[in-house]
Amino acid sequence: MPPPADSPPCNRPDKLPAGHLPGDSLRVDRWLWFARIFKTRGLAARVVSAGHLRVNTAKVSKPAHKVAPGDTLTLLVAGDIRILRILALGTRRGPAPEAQRLYEDLTPKPEIAPVVEKSTRKGRPTKKDRRDLMRDRRDMLE
Fold first, then answer.
1. Is the dihedral of CA 15, 28, 21, 39 positive or negative?
2. pTM for the predicted model, two decimal places
3. Structural domain contains residue 127
4. Averages of pLDDT over each 10 residues, the chain, 142 residues
5. Ordered alpha helix ranges (H), the chain
6. What is the DSSP letter of 10?
């Protein structure tokens, strides 16, 4: 029996009704897995459920949230914030070059930290040396 006309289309290409192309949207956890941002779909769903994802600046906490080409994702991956613009949805989890064509990486390049000269003194650092090291580390984090 064919699905009712008002039912949402299925995302699996092998289960789509005749003459129907894959939809204009896809679950965000599935897209993150297709794009090889996460190794498993379950891990992608866990990150989304934890609230570490924004779609077009709106916080998303449901792995079933739909995304479409043109959407901008901001997410936390391995302690780094990544900004991705979706270019295509994809139909499978293909090889890495195919996955990289699904998005444009808008993440700003990290600034190279200046080289801090080590103290010319030998032995244990003085209190002034420790304060200087702490100040330099704090400045790098800001």
1. negative
2. 0.63
3. no
4. 51 43 80 94 94 92 93 90 92 92 90 69 84 84 64
5. 28-34, 41-49, 96-100, 127-141
6. P
Is the CB of residue 71 less than 8 Å from the CB of residue 56?
yes
Q: pLDDT tens, 16-51?
A: 433 335 568 899 999 999 999 999 999 999 999 999
Check which CATH number belongs to the domain holding 83 and give it: 3.10.290.10
In a domain, 81, yes or no: yes
- With contact defined as beta carbons under 8 Å apart, do 72 and 56 qualify? yes
Residue 1 lies in a domain: no
Alpha-carbon gap, residue 81 to 18, rounded angstroms: 41
Give the structural domain span for 45.
13-105
From residue 47, give the alpha-carbon distance in Å to each of 29, 44, 51, 140: 9, 5, 7, 27
Which token pair is 42? 């379950």
CA dist 135 and 34 (Å) reads: 42
Domain assignment of residue 119, yes or no: no
* Structure tokens belonging to residue 123: 């032995």
Domain count, the chain: 1
